[in-house]
C-alpha cells in the first residue's frame, strides 16, 4: 500500500466528472488500499478518488458509528434515498482548515458495488449519511464549498 497526495481546492481535477469502474481487477484493489491508507493517515472520514487525482467513481469512508470503526468501500455509488435536510457543519480534506454550514440529510441509503463488483445497499446515519452525499458529489466534480451558507471557525485540537 502507498499513501497518495491529496489535491486541494483550485486543482482542476477536483472539478471533473469521474468515469464509472467497469473492471474489478487488481488495479482497483490497489487504488482502494491506497485510498484507505491515505484516508486513515489524514484523519478524515471520507475520501473520493478524484481527491488523489484519479477520475474514477470510487470512494472510501469510515463508518465511525461502528465500534471498531469500519472502512466502507463504495464503487459507482449513488445516494438512492434520504430524509429531510438539516443544517450541519462540514469540512473536506481538499479544503484544509475550512468548515461551513451546509444542508444534509441525517439518514441516507446508498447503492454501490464492492471491490468484486457485487451491488449492495447500505444505510447511514449522521456523519455517515453526510459523507455518502459529500463523497458522491466529489465524483461529479463538486465541492461542499458550493453549498456553504456561512463559514465557521472551528477550534483545532
Ligand atoms: Ni471532500
| H and E string | HEEEEEEEHE
**DSSP strand content:** 25-35%
Uncertain stretches: none
Rg over CA atoms, rounded to whole Å, is 15 Å
Count of DSSP strands: 8
* Structural class assignment: alpha+beta
Instruction: Give a list of the ligands.
Output: nickel (II) ion
What would a concise description of this structure say?
This protein is an alpha+beta fold and 157 residues long. The protein has 2 helices and 8 strands, in the order H-E-E-E-E-E-E-E-H-E.
Explain what you see:
This protein has 157 residues and is of the alpha+beta class. The protein has helices at 26-42, 127-138; strands at 46-48, 58-63, 70-82, 85-90, 99-105, 107-113, 119-125, 150-152. The protein has a five-stranded antiparallel sheet. A three-stranded antiparallel sheet has the order 4-5-8. It is globular and about 40 Å long. Bound molecules: nickel (II) ion. Nickel (II) ion binds at residues 92-94, 134, 138.
Which keywords apply here?
33% strand; 5-stranded antiparallel sheet; 3-stranded antiparallel sheet; binds nickel (II) ion; single chain; 157 residues; alpha+beta
Chart the SSEs and their pairings.
Layout lengths: L25 H17 L3 E3 L9 E6 L6 E13 L2 E6 L8 E7 L1 E7 L5 E7 L1 H12 L11 E3 L5
Antiparallel strand pairs: 1-2, 2-3, 3-6, 4-5, 5-8, 6-7
The chain binds nickel (II) ion.
Amino acid at each position: 500500500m502507498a499513501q497518495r497526495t491529496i489535491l486541494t481546492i483550485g486543482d482542476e481535477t477536483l472539478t471533473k466528472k469521474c468515469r464509472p469502474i467497469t473492471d474489478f481487477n487488481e488495479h482497483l484493489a490497489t487504488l482502494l488500499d491506497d485510498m484507505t491508507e491515505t484516508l486513515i493517515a489524514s484523519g478524515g472520514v471520507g475520501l473520493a478518488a478524484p481527491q488523489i487525482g484519479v477520475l474514477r467513481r470510487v470512494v472510501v469512508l469510515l463508518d465511525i458509528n461502528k465500534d471498531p470503526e469500519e472502512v466502507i468501500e463504495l464503487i459507482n455509488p449513488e445516494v438512492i434515498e434520504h430524509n429531510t435536510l438539516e443544517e450541519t457543519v462540514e469540512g473536506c480534506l481538499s479544503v484544509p482548515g475550512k468548515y461551513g454550514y451546509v444542508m444534509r440529510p441525517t439518514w441516507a441509503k446508498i447503492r454501490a458495488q464492492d471491490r468484486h463488483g457485487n451491488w449492495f445497499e447500505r444505510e447511514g446515519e449522521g456523519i455517515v449519511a453526510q459523507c455518502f452525499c459529500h463523497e458522491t458529489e466529489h465524483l461529479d466534480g463538486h465541492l461542499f464549498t458550493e453549498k456553504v451558507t456561512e463559514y465557521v471557525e472551528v477550534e483545532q485540537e
